[in-house]
Amino acid sequence: MESELMANDDSLPPNKLLPEPNPPEKPAPACPECERLWKVYALNTRKYLDVTLAEGAAAQTDDIAKVRILEEEALEAAKLRELARQAVRHHAATHQK
Ligand SMILES: [Zn+2]
Q1: How far apart are CA 73 and CA 57, in angstroms?
Q2: pLDDT per residue over 9-49, tens digit each?
Q3: Ligand 1 centroid from CA 87, angstroms
Q4: What distance in angstroms lies between residue 93's CA and the mean position of ligand 1's atoms?
Q5: What's the gap in Å between 83 CA and the centre of ligand 1?
């Protein structure tokens, strides 16, 4: 029992503590729906990163209005990305039986 507990401790990856969600399961090969959902997720992730980068760049300037707009866009992009991630996971679950 003791060794099992220790093994569990060792196997905890440090990135478990990060707020960033782990990417969903890999798409099943030859499943068009997996492929479609993954493309949406990848697109949303890309957009989220782009907006986040733009927000960071704008924060270096005095353009408060731009920063505010980008902040809202980043929030929206994060939401869409999370929804896309859930869609992938929900669909992927239908493959596991
Ligand atoms: Zn699928």
Answers
A1: 14
A2: 444 444 444 445 556 666 666 899 999 999 999 999 999 99
A3: 11
A4: 9
A5: 17
- Give 91 Cα–ligand 1 centroid separation in angstroms: 6
Helix/strand/coil for 13: coil
Ligand 1 center from residue 54 Cα (angstroms): 33
Q: 74-83: which pairs have CB atoms within 8 A and are 24 or more residues apart?
A: 74/48, 77/44, 77/47, 77/48, 77/51, 77/52, 78/48, 80/44, 80/47, 80/48, 81/41, 81/44, 81/45, 81/47, 81/48, 82/21, 83/44
Using pLDDT thresholds of 50, 70 and 90, give the confidence band for residue 90: very high
Give ion ligand 1 contacts, CB < 5 A: 28, 31, 33-34
